[in-house]
Amino acid sequence: MAIGTYREYQHLTRITDLEAGDLLLKKVFPETCKGAVEWGITQGQRLFSGDNTIKTGGLFSREKFRIAFNGSHTSEHAAVAISADELAEAVGEGVITASVRGRRDERYCVYRCLNVDLRNAAVMIAKGLSSAYHNMITGSPEVRNTTGGKYSVKGALASNFRSQQFQQGATHAYLTHVVDYVYGVRHDRPNMFCSEFAMTCYEAGSLAAFGKTAFGTNPIGMSPMFMEDVLNSRPDLMALAGKYDSENDVLFSAVEAGLRNYKNRKHFWNRLGISEASKRASEVLQNLMHIGDNDYLLAALAAFLSTTPTGPLSIRCNMSEDWRLSPDSSLYGDLVAQMKPTGLLAGL
Questions:
Q1: Is the dihedral of CA 286, 340, 11, 8 positive or negative?
Q2: Contact 222, 196 (CB under 8 A)
Q3: Which listed site, 11, 117, 289, 307, has its alpha carbon 20 to 30 Å from 347?
Q4: Model confidence over 150-166: pLDDT tens digits?
């Protein structure tokens, strides 16, 4: 089933531990959209490729007349878990690895492969395409001189116009290129966008392990929305295991809500109406949420609000007076309103 609304997403089971090989499909809903890039990607998919979950037909997609389409334009990004704590993804810098904890401020649908051998093969490709693990996979004693591997903005934009089906000549050549790079035969790594990378890991991994692709797709035509459709159409290989996020984290949810309420105020769009302290506090707290360490987040929040945690904390944030928020500021009020019910800070 395609997850097209925030309500549908909220009903999914929360996953606390990821497994190597899990495919993570980032979801962006009107209620959770944080910026122009997220809005542009989701609405672009809706416009050009259609979305049967909300009864629209895309302007150009060859799939717009399909009856049973199981993808939604709310799918915005894709990544592959390479362990319980680390994921690989194609971003602006190319294929990188990152801590799973650093994605706690986002919302992901988690698809789990039911074939262990296929899952392991996909993880091998994901690691081999990343700079962090490439040498380990190839067994090279020295750092290999490689080229390419950038994020493909052009490919991401063109994916809505390309066929998603396996192309006998072109797709096979592309996947063979990937496998040859991962195992050290070639030095040129293809440029990729996020869902292309995620789908390539499974299709190239399957080609390397079994001599054929697992899903019969063309990864370079795989937008996040079409990737969701492919995964949902193969219940024999993939299961929607649940969701991965931090909506059950009291501290995280309170800070996120406080920052969101502050941002939604009209004066936010008037840069002259934001104090330097509020601007700085917003950026610091947002960055700490990305890092995903609650101790640092709580310590910084207590310092910004000139209070102390109610429970023991292993660290302390030393902050000068000019960084602290004024009790008269809007951001102070929004954060206090959300934090007070949590009981995590004293004197609110």
A1: negative
A2: yes
A3: 289
A4: 877 776 666 665 666 76
